[in-house]
Amino acid sequence: MVPISTMPRGNNTRLCRVKMPDFCPISKMIPVKAATFPGSIRPASTNWRLSGRSGARMWRSLSLLLVLVTAPLAAVEYNVYSPEELVHVLVKRDNGKLTYAVNYGRRPMVLDSALELDGWEPGRFLNSAERSSLAVWRPVYGERASIPDNFRELTLRFERLSVVIRAYEEGVAFRYRLEGQGRFELAGEQTEFRFPPGAMAWQEHGTEGEYFRVPAARLKDQCERPLTVDPGNGLWVSLAEAGQTNYPRMLLGARNEAVVTQLDGEVRGTLPFETPWRVLVLGRRPGDLLERNYLLLNLSRPQVLTATAWIKPGKVIREVTLSTKGGKAAVDFAAANGLQYIEYDAGWYGHEYDDEADARTVSPDPKRIASIPDHGGLDLPEVIRYAKQKGIGVILYVNRRQLEARMDELFPLFRKWGVAGVKFGFVNVKGQEWAEWLTEAIRKAAAQQLMVDVHDSYRPSGLTRTFPNLMTVEGVRGNEHMPTATHNTTLPFTRAVAGSLDYTICWMTERLKTTWGHQLAQLVVHHSPWNFVFWYDRPDQIIESPGLEFFAIVPTTWDETRVLAGAIGTHAVVARRKGREWFIGAITNEEPRTVELRLGMLDLYVRYELKTWCDGEGARDVRVVASEVKEGETVQLRLAPSGGCAARLKPL
To answer: How much is the pTM?
Structure first.
């Protein structure tokens, strides 16, 4: 920021004051024209003028006192406002120390908190800069067809460090830039998020764990992000990370009544170097956090792929017999039931944990196929040929061991075979080197026109904007764990803030703890451009059911997303639009629930067919009802305990 005296003057007059030491002999001030600050980024304290004979005496006295008052005058405050001034960030600079605070609609969301790196002194302050953005961009696919990117930004530059702070209507983001030249090492961060006293958070550990509501100030170490927080003032915030491509993961803990960052490894690199963004998604209700999760995409590097026609979302069924016969049966089922892919899962090239197994060859794991009568072997080229005839793609699972050993050989080979994509298994996520490795692996897959699903402990941070061949990721307690309905109604407001989640929808397995209506609804509630369905089922086990129709017609990517109702751990109702059709998913926890919805998102003067697939007489029963509705009407959905309802609204 430049001093007030050098800034252009505005049209209004205001009295500008600087807090001076008690002993400062300044007896009067005169009004000063208010400065116009671009982007609504303003110093909270401004300069002042003296006039007349007493003013001259004051200047002489002041020149003698400069050394004495330097320390008090060193404190400077900056106000950063979002474009419509709903979000306000107050940044304080005092002798090289930086703190920030966040207000949302004049309510405190984050109190004064430190912006600090472990052992990295920023050096002498140099200057500040501001800029703003009013933009819209269109992703290749996603939860919405167009994404606003509107913010105001402040950069504070020191000799060895710059801090960039952005204020959006949807939240706040900041990152560090380490300045200089040559190699560096950084032990960690000391970034704080001091939520208001009494704030409660939903903590989860291990990426596939359960969620627990705890005081934010008592968070256990190594908590995963995103972290959803109820500040206790009627508003909501989710703490997330964006742009984590060459940096250790931001995990979270608590120190001195504040949530603090805990990197899962040291940082090394070449200066200058930028960290990922620390993101606070803000909302008036939990559903706003899901609706605004595109903020992580905005903060990620724009798309680098020039051609994307080969990137095709869709629904996937897993093939587990590892045979030619099983593969063709899966292809036939996919083609007949509105699915787009089959996936050969672990074992097609041997046991995935065996370092001697070679994904350049097709040799099914003997232990897995020993109990399958008349297995008949696996002719993968024949299955790929057969699938292509029917418009079905083939995905291959490859464990990290093979990817780490020979990724540069495998990807060109898979492209030659006609494989559509690769599911990465059990990738390493701890430490900087594995973040760099995974980013490079996705880039190399894109170079061979291979789509990617990253399974197990990885969580997204916006990389799908840069590389839209990253179709989905796991990093969630999904149906591999058979979670409770309470857990499922927690996910939309917690884990889903990070982006897509590969939940693995199930159908026939008896291990399900929820109803069929609940499983159908999750096809809409959770976003996964590659949506793996019938996870523990084989085609010959799936019986005829009205629910199969919804599997066939539901899309996996969307033009618009709205959360119509919901509360963490009790229920979630999500509506998503594809073209002119709307799809709704409603799920409840272990309590029965009647959800009343006003259809305010529909087009005016248009009649719609509302078709619902809701809980029937038992957990394995779906009741289908069709009716006509129009914009503004209210409908009721009755959900059984651990139940749900899926719906489609189609213009007539």
So the answer is: 0.89
